[in-house]
Amino acid sequence: MASISSPGIGSGLDIRNLVDSLVRAEGEPVVQRLDRRQERVEAQLSAIGSLKSALSSFKTSLLDVSTFNSFARRSASSSNESLFSATAGSTATPATYQLEVEQLAVAHKLATGSFEDSKASIGTGTLTFQYGDPSKPAQTVTIEPGQGSLEGIRDAVNNAGIEVSASIIKGDDGYQLVFSARGTGVDNSIRISVSENPANGGNTDMNGLSQLAYNPDAEVGAGRNLNQMTEAKDAIAHIDGIRVTSASNTLNNSIPGVSITLQKAESGSPATLTVAADRASASSGVEKFVEGFNKLAALFKELGGYDAASQTGGVLQGDATLRGVENQLRRMISNVVPGLDGAYRSMADIGIRTQADGSLSLDKARLEQALSQNFDDIARIFAAAGSSQDSLMRYAGASSNTQPGSYAVNVTQLATQGLYRDVAAQLSSLTVGADNDSFRIKVNGIQSGLITLNRASYEDGHALAAELQSKINGDGNLSAARTTVKVSFEDGAFTFRSERYGSVSQVAISSVKDATASALIGLTANSAASIAGLDVAGTIGGRAATGSGQTLIGAGMAEGLRIEVAGGELGDRGRMSFSRGVADQMNTMLDQFLGDNSFLTARTDSLDSQLKTIGDERENLIRRMDSLEARYMRQFSALDAMMAQMQSTSNFLAGQLTALPGAYNGRN
After folding, report:
1. Reported pTM
2. Does one domain contain both 266 and 136?
C-alpha cells in the first residue's frame, strides 16, 4: 500500500517550496547561459541562411552578363516590318543590307478524287511518305483493318506525328482527302508510296489504297494518283542584289548570325535590314549587375557592420566567413581582368566604382561611351570569351579550370566522318524487287531495324541513293538516337557517310536480303569497306590536346578549353585568346560558395551541431536537477522526521516533568 507523504508536516517547514527554490537557484544560471548560447547560434544560423539566399539572388543577376552570348547581343531591325522581320545572335556582324522579297515559300498539298461519303472505304496497308529533300527520313503510316475509310486514314496519318497532316474537305462534288506538308518549300514536297494489304501486285493503280500513291514522275493512274492542289515553292529573296532561296519563310544562314522571317512578297520594293550591337540590352544587364551587388553589399553591412547610434554590432560582426565572402567578391570587382589588353580592362574603365559605404556606383554616360566604342571588349570585362583570327577555328567553351591567356594552336589531324564504300560493288541494276529490297545497317554503333526499299526501277544511281538515304534515316532505331547518314553515288558505287565526326562515327552494312541480288544494286555487307572516322588532333598551348569529333580539348593551363576546328590546313593555326570576365569569375565562385561541400555549408552544419549540443546539455541539466531535487527531498524529509521525533520526545519529557510530585506547574 502506497504511503501518503506530506513533506514538512512534522517540522512545520514548507519543504516543497524550499526544495523547488534551491533547485531553481542551482539550475537557473545554467539555463540562462544555454538560452543566451542558443539565441546567439540561432541568430548566426539565420544570418548564414540570409547570406546564402542573397548570394543566390545575386547569382541570378549575373545571367545577362556572365556569358559572351548573353552580354554581346545584337539587334536586327527592318524598315518595313510588313515585308520581313529579323533577329540577330551574338555572332552577327553589325551592318546594313537591302532586302527584297520576291516569293514566299508555299507548302505542298495533294488531294484525292471525290467520294460520296467520308466513311467510304479506300483500303488498308501502309503509306510511306518521302520528301523532296532526300536527307529527310521516310515516314511510314500503317492503315489497320477498320481504318481504311477517308476518316480512318485521316486520323491514322494525324496520329502518327509525321511531317504531313491530313484533312477532309466537302466540296460540291463530294468528300476529298487532302494531304498537306507541314513544312513549306520544295524540300518538303510529298511523295507517297503504297503497300496494299492484301498485296494484289499493283501498288500504283487506281484500286484500293493504291489510289493514294503519288509519284510526280509517274503517269496519271500509274502512281501519280492524287491531284496536286498547291505546288511546293521555295521562298525567294534578294539580299543586296544576291538571290537567296529557302524551303521556309525563314532565312537562317544567308547572313551569319541573323534570322530573317519573310512576311510578304513584294518585288521591286526592297527594305533596309539593320544589324547593330544591342547596347540597350547590354546596358540593362550592367545595371542589373550593379543593383544586385548593392543589395548584397547592404546585407554585408547589416550582418557585419556596427551601428554607432545604438552601439550594436551585426550578428556576424568580425565573422571570418562573412569577411571571406565579401573580400573575395570585392577583389574581383577592383582587379584588372586577366587576359585583356587595350583601353578597357576593368570595371573602373567603364564607370563602375566602389563608394565609401561599400556599394557600387555606375557612370551611365561613361558606360554608354565605352559600349559605343568597343562593344565586344566591354563584354569580355564581364563574360568568359575566346577569340581567334582563324575563321575555321571557333571558341566552343571552357571549364572552371581554364586559365586566361593566349594559346598557340597546332592541328596535326582534321576530324573525318565514318563511311562505308565498297568500290568493288558496282551498280549494275536499277531495279529493286522482292529479292533485294531489304537490308540492315549499323551507324555510330546503333543497329537499324529491317530497312525496306520501294520496289521500283530507278532513273539512275543518284535516285536510288536518295531512296537509300531516305529509308535509312527513317529507321526507328536510328532516328531515336538522332543518327543520320548521307548517301551519295559516284563512279558506279554508293558511299554511306555518317553525319557525325570523330572516332565514334562508323557505318557498316550489317546484312542484305540476298547477297547476289543485292550486289546488283551495289549493296553488300563487306566489313572491309567500312572506314571509321577520325578525331581532330593537335596541341593547345604546346601541350597535347584531347580530340573529340571536331573539338580539341586543352590540358594544363588550358584545361577544359574547347576549340572547334571545322577544317582548314594542318600545322600552326594561330592563337586562341581566352579571358574570364568578372561576372564569369563571380559565377564560378558563387557556385563554390553555394555548393554542398562549401565552407558556408560547413558553417551551417557546425551551427546545427552546436544547437544539438545545446539541446543535449539541456537534457543533461534536467536529469541533474531531477537528481538534485530527489536528494534534497530525501535530506529534508529525513530532517522533517528527525524534528518530528524530537518534538515528540520534547512533548513526552514535558509531560513527565509536569507529573512529578511537587513539581511546579504554574497553578500552585
Report:
1. 0.69
2. no
